[in-house]
Amino acid sequence: MTSSDSADAACGHADARPTWAEIDLDAITHNVGLIRERAGRPVKLLVPVKANAYGHGAAVVGLHLESLGVDGLATANVDDAIAIREAGATLPILLYGAQLPSGNDYLLQHDLTPTVYSTASLQSISAVAGDSHRIVNVHIKIDAGMGRLGVRLDQAVEFAREVAHTSNVRLEGVYTHIPFSDEAGEAWSRRRLRAFVEVVRTIEAEHGMIDFTQAAASSVFAQGLPDSLNTIAAGHITFGLHPIAGARAEHAGFRKALTALRSRLIHIGHRKRGDDLPGTGSAGLEADATVGVILLGMDNGYRSGPAGADAYMLCHGLRCPVLSISAEYVVIDLTDVPNVEVGDLVTVIGRDGDEEIAVENVAEQLGAPSAAYWMVGLKSVPYRYSGIASFSRTARVP
């Protein structure tokens, strides 16, 4: 295929699928540098790329993070991890607790680092490693109090001892997860962080220094909780999202990697007063209206918000109310937008003229707990990457 053919194909796809997300890889570069600077000590970065890199495209983002020299990536989605591997990344990829013991062979086939928190999983890894005459690095997940996943904190020292005495296995990392989004959660997280650090020090006193010891996800790091461990695993703020309710990462100097989510009008409809539409009652529509349709919907993570919540998109620099959302379409009110035509730009997230809609606004409109929780739902959208020459193209990464 010639370069001209490639350009034609890209243009053809853009017209056939006129919806896209704009991702600034330079923002990720900036944020990673800021994390290193504000850590205040030499640290390793084990960057979470869970949920398709928080909706930013795991494969391209993973390659970019590798180019920045981070020490590893982490996700619970084995398909995302393999997509990053198949894109060419060679850095360590930790798979958070996800697999059944019988699934460890599959992880090792793709050079992924398994998490362990049970004897059964540990023994299965040992057996697979023994069959291939290799030593496999593993990370222990400790439940420091969240009550979700991992070996209990009061059993962690004994389990680490079990790992250390299991053949063909090397204890490379110990981690926990103690996120919070409000003041009460912060107090809890501080208590659990202290308890976790004590256990880590006990394990290291018996087995020597561990390569990766980590409890500082974005909330712990962003709020500056005391942390003496050697690894930071900040997901939210790597992408310019803040984990604390009501806070904005840009106010702390971070930049959003998602700069825009846009679409183009594929249809303009003209409704007439009296039209018998769903919900209008027997008298029909109260007034004439112009509406537009874009190719975005629940399939992409954009869904209806709580009752009474108003949602808007931008067209010609004007706020246009969202009228309805279905599996693949959103209908917006264009009545007040002059000279609107099929193909005109609609901004779901981003700036249009003097108006701007942030991802936090969309999260609030749709009833998501935070911007990050909405972003992880963003899917099935073509990406347009900028910031690095090799990625300055439209990428359709699953």
Summarize the structure.
This protein is α/β, with parallel strands linked by helices.
Structural notes for this entry:
The protein is of the alpha/beta class and 398 residues long. The protein contains twelve helices and 20 strands. Strands 1, 11, 12, 13, 14, 15, 16, 17, 18, 19 and 20 form an eleven-stranded mixed sheet that branches. An eight-stranded parallel barrel has the order 2-3-4-5-6-8-9-10, surrounded by five helices. Helix 4 crosses helix 5 and helix 8 runs parallel beside helix 9. The C terminus is likely disordered.
Distinctive features:
alpha/beta; 8-stranded parallel β-barrel; 398 residues; 12 helices; 24% strand; disordered C terminus; 11-stranded mixed β-sheet; 31% helix; single chain; 20 strands
Q: Runs with pLDDT <50, length 5+? A: 389-398
- Total helical elements: 12
Output the radius of gyration. 24 Å
The fraction of residues in strands falls at 15-25%
Averaged pLDDT: 90
Shape category: elongated
Proportion of helical residues? 25-40%
Largest sheet entry: 11 strands, mixed
Helix-strand makeup class: alpha/beta
Total E-strand runs: 20
Distance between the termini: 23 Å
Topology record:
Layout: H1 3-16, E1 19-24, H2 25-39, E2 44-48, H3 50-55, H4 58-67, E3 72-75, H5 78-86, E4 93-95, H6 104-109, E5 113-116, H7 119-131, E6 136-143, E7 151-152, H8 156-164, E8 169-175, H9 183-207, E9 212-216, H10 218-222, E10 231-232, E11 258-264, E12 267-271, E13 289-294, E14 312-315, E15 318-325, E16 330-333, E17 345-352, E18 355-357, H11 359-366, H12 371-375, E19 383-386, E20 394-395
Parallel strand pairs: 1-19, 2-3, 2-10, 3-4, 4-5, 5-6, 6-7, 6-8, 8-9, 9-10
Antiparallel strand pairs: 1-11, 11-17, 12-13, 13-16, 14-15, 14-17, 15-16, 17-18, 19-20
Helix pairs in contact: 4-5, 8-9
